[in-house]
Amino acid sequence: MDIKASDVKALRDMTGAGMLDCKKALAESNGDMDRAVDYLREKGISKAAKKADRIAAEGLANIYISNNKALVLEVNSETDFVAKNADFINMVDTIGNAILNSEVSTLEDALNLNVDGNSINDLIINTTATIGEKLSLRRIEVVNKNDDEVFGSYLHMGGKIASLIVLKGDNESVAKDVAMQSAAMKPEYVCREDVPSEKTEHERAVLVEQAKTEGKKEEFIDKIIVGRLDKFYAEICLIEQTFVKDSDLTVKEYLDKNSSSVVKMIRYEVGEGMEKRSENFADEVMSQIK
Asked: How far apart are CA 290 and CA 287, in angstroms?
């Protein structure tokens, strides 16, 4: 029988199953939506939808590079246990390589990208059904560099933190050092010029009140604030941080010594800004057994 695309989409929205599975279910049930839902449940295909409201704040961040193009992505799972699962890791690599070798640059386009006859979104849904946890592609960033620039990349803790640096210059070793700096010291910006003015003004206001509370004389407060703002920038700006490999240098001084400069920094930390699961380890193990 002729299966309507609108019915396939409706069944997919109801169950979270892949498009091909939904089409097959409708064909097997002669177009009856309720029977098609039962078919998918019986086959264990629709269980992914039941996990849609769970928290997935674990997972992996990774970096893929080909010539002058790089991709940074984060794919989430519910538990660190699953993040180490071979099926999950293979899925992440499949997604990463597919995006890297395509023209897409947004998360929405990436989810709709075709991989071996299915979209990446369908791949995630189907792997969710296989693994038994909610999985999601949270974010991506595609980066292109010029020929006179180099990439520096670093993965920390097996992919809990991924740091990518684009460096002006030709020294890949320096670029990797700066990527390691970014992973370790968690800078928010490359330089103070990148810090939004409202963030700086908020910090300045806090520091002024802090100085007044400490009883500093009014005529000295401006000079005190300059020094304290410098310390503020040295914490949040990559090039103003103390270089982790040589505490006698700032990152900028290290770069200057090597005739290099930072063009771009991307740092992904898995689950940052997301609500975390509150289960303890014993509960997590039991949830795997059930």
From this structure: 5
